[in-house]
Amino acid sequence: MKQVILIAGIALIVIVIALLVGARIVGPRMISVAPPKGEPIGKFDLPRPETSILAVDIVVPMTMLEEIANTKVPPEIEGADNKSFHKRVKDGKYAWKVVRGDVDFENQGDKLAFKVPFQGAAKFAGDLDAKILTLPLEGNAELGGMATGTLNPQILPDWKIEPNLVPNIQLSKAALTFGQLGKIDISSLLGSSLGQYLQKETRKLTPALKKGLNLRKEVNKLWGQAYFTEQISDDPKVWLKITPQQLLLGPLDYSKAEQISVSVAIQSETFLVNREPVPATPAPLPNLRPVDSPIDTNLQIPIIISMQELNQVLENENIDLDTGIGTQVKVTGMKAEVGQNGFLNIGLNIQADKSRIGRGVAGQIWVQGKPIIDLDNQTLGFSEVALTVETKDSLTSAATWLLEGFLVKGIESQLRVDLDDYKEELNEEVLKAIDNAKLPEGIDVSVQNLDIRLADIYTITRHFEEGEPDPGIVIVVQATGDMDTSINQLILQSPEDP
């Protein structure tokens, strides 16, 4: 009996030893690699300033143009001149007074056309040369016709408006009857005299429209509101600051028959600061910089992502790799920290089964890679992935070959972190800011085709100027869309307005 017990004990010891030896020889090699050495230094010390363009498409209905013109252009015009109106009349002179009808505008697709009917009367006087004696003459004539023309306004950089006015006067009634002289056609006379005066009055359409639609004043309000500061983070305290830099002016748009429009864009610099800035004093409204094509809104907004936030997302990412040589590699428990030269160090747990060429590997290792935005899929990915020096020193040559050959490529091709939450959050903030904006009275703003996209990603050493090193990453989010601003209420400006 004792021999049986002894034999059984020896057998158990052999089994245990065999299991231990087998685990060391054929089981997966357990490793635990330390994080890479060196101070974390971001690609940039601070978040970069981003340039944004906020384009405002100012839409003016044709009906409003007509209302302004009919309010600003005098309803009556009158004038006088000294000029012979017949070869037998000496010291000819005349005076006229006409009343205009409604000013009508038409959008012709590349310019504005207008027409203004008018009617009135003229008084003529002079001395009739009757050969033997001179007789005083007086007569009246009815006047009627249409003042027409085209306007192709051009807004100059200094905010002056070049009307590019081409007027035309058509007289339908312009006949004078004097007893002995009979009926005298005065249309040519008035075409050069009264016509010139009417043309001069017609030119008042442009300043009338300028006063009624004081573009500079409305843009000046938007320029002042473009100075924007808002706290976007409590820990650490970070403020987003927007400072306008220049104004861009697009061409007039005649594409819609019922309106004309012009796009004015404020180009601003967006950056982050670590303390609440002193409210900036807006600079005077600068001159316009004309551009040849319509301007679109393009907001570039930096968002700081702490490593804690990023790791909350990464820890839920798992990757299963099939090497094709009988080995499965499972990757779990990922976490990241800022490395150097724009890289992130990524710690991960791996379980690599035994392959045809050696033992498997299990434990924690570190790789490094540069964060990139997959612009097609709108996700966070990694490029230039490689094992860290510390990881290579802890692996056998076979394990290094296995991981470099399959794990590294697998991370580059399969690790995609969905950042839709940040896009959705920004989308809500943009729409909320527009809804809550304090716009000038009589103006409506709407945003259509709003598109929020991830544009760039990079590492930083600190979140703000003068701050302690607190490495993280910055995601640049791009917001584009069609922003329409339409004037829905006529507010006439006084002559004293700038």
How would you portray this structure in words?
There is one protein chain. The chain is α+β, with helices and mostly antiparallel strands. It has 2 domains: 28-61 and 215-498, no CATH class; 74-203. Helix content is 23%, strand content 47%. It contains 10 helices and 24 strands. The protein has helices spanning 2-25, 62-72, 187-192, 194-202, 205-212, 215-225, 307-314, 389-394, 397-414, 420-435, and strands at residues 29-32, 50-61, 76-82, 89-100, 104-107, 112-129, 134-151, 154-155, 161-162, 165-178, 182-185, 228-234, 237-253, 259-273, 288-290, 297-306, 319-322, 328-338, 344-352, 361-374, 379-387, 417-418, 443-460, 472-487. Strands 2, 12, 13, 14, 15, 16, 23 and 24 form an 8-stranded mixed beta sheet that branches. Strands 1, 17, 18, 19, 20, 21 and 22 form a 7-stranded mixed beta sheet that branches. Strands 3, 4, 5, 6, 7, 10 and 11 form a 7-stranded antiparallel beta sheet that branches. The protein is rod-shaped. The relative contact order is 0.16.
